[in-house]
Amino acid sequence: MRAVVTRVTSASVTIAGEVTGQIGRGFLVLLGVGPQDTQAQAEKMADKILGLRVFEDENQKMNLNLAAVGGGLLVVSQFTLYADTKSRRPGFTGAAKPELAEPLYEYFLSECARRGFPPQHGRFGADMAVASVNDGPVTILFDTDTM
Fold it and tell me: Motif Gly-cisPro motif, important for rejection of L-amino acids located where (predicted)?
């Protein structure tokens, strides 16, 4: 499982002209699922992201997590995180097939909610417009293969 986590002052996802999820201060998470991923990896990813301390404390040190700042969470499925970029036209065969990826994406959302962070989100497989105002910018990459 791979994730790109961006600290934002606001973010939203729009599908067919309708805003389906939006947050103020918090994390925009682009989440990709690989073919070998499991629920255990989704749980580990949720723990890592929700515990990530990249918000500034009173001394301007990145020391606070999402809970400490009352932040929101917007999660968007992103199979392109598994792109094969050896050529100029990327291939996406490294991403999990939808029948595996969608349930794990939904499981990740439920794990975030179970941990007290019910996420705003897009819709798996939809053509989405994602808008964000990056804060910092702070952008962190996660890959369960290296965690």
Answer: 136-137
Annotated catalytic residues are 78-80
Q: How many CB atoms lie within 10 A of CB 31?
A: 28
Chain-centroid distance, C-alpha 63? 20
Q: At 35, is the secondary structure helix, strand, or coil?
A: coil
Six token digits for residue 91: 């291939």
pLDDT tens-place string over residues 50-71: 999 999 999 999 999 999 999 9
Q: What is the DSSP string of 104-136?
A: HHHHHHHHHHHTT---EE--TT--EEEEEEEEE
Question: How far is residue 89 CA from its own chain's centroid?
Answer: 24
Q: Which of 114, 138, 109 is nearest to 27 (CA)?
A: 138
Region 99-108: mean pLDDT is 97
